[in-house]
């Protein structure tokens, strides 16, 4: 699954590497963000699985698609592996090292400014805001791999006050994520020194991580 508004061709570099290892791959496009809902996104995964005649496949997604994969993991214990490649919800907390109230205000004001006058994006941001991603990770019922990018320069492109708040969010979320992984046996973490589009920047590393987790899974292969 690709990120929001992205196409299935985003997997053009990683998919052949998975196929070379003997897996069958199916890539789907991202739905229209204006009508986006988490329930609808998870349902579309099930429809794609049925349409292609797949039985208990592994599910991997990038960015928004990665969050959908994590949601799939919370509902499908028969899934051999779900993978979230750098998927995050709104950067509105938790925050480390700053006043959390001020940081949240800064981030919410920035998001509102970016989406002003755009009903589609306003709807999408509201959907993102409604999801507790850490709770989703803790609810995993099948092996779930969360891969985070550590080479992104996004902070440097933000206004100074927003950059400070965003960096505090990155630290806070990383702390919460590590705590969740320590307490959730089915949740494992990995980092890649890439930007956000890790499946395009480091397809071999992405494929290696997926294949490695599949081979160590106690579930049947897809």
* Helix content percent band: 40-55%
Ends apart, CA distance between termini = 16 Å
- How do the SSEs run, as a string of H and E? HHEHEHHHEHEHH
Number of helices: 9
For this structure, what is the CATH class?
Alpha Beta
> By CATH's scheme, which homologous superfamily applies?
Alpha/Beta hydrolase fold, catalytic domain
Radius of gyration: 17 Å
Summarize the structure in words.
This protein is α/β, with parallel strands linked by helices and 222 residues long. It has one domain: Alpha/Beta hydrolase fold, catalytic domain (Rossmann fold, 3-Layer(aba) Sandwich), CATH 3.40.50. Helix content is 49%, strand content 9%. The chain has nine helices and four strands, in the order ααβαβαααβαβαα. The chain has helices at residues 14-20, 38-51, 64-75, 100-115, 119-129, 133-138, 160-183, 198-201, 203-216, and strands at residues 59-62, 82-85, 144-149, 187-192. Strands 1-2-3-4 form a four-stranded parallel β-sheet, with helices on both faces. Helix 7 links the parallel strand 3 and strand 4. Helix 2 packs across helix 3 (64-75). The longest helix is centred in the C-terminal third of the chain and has 24 residues, at 160-183.
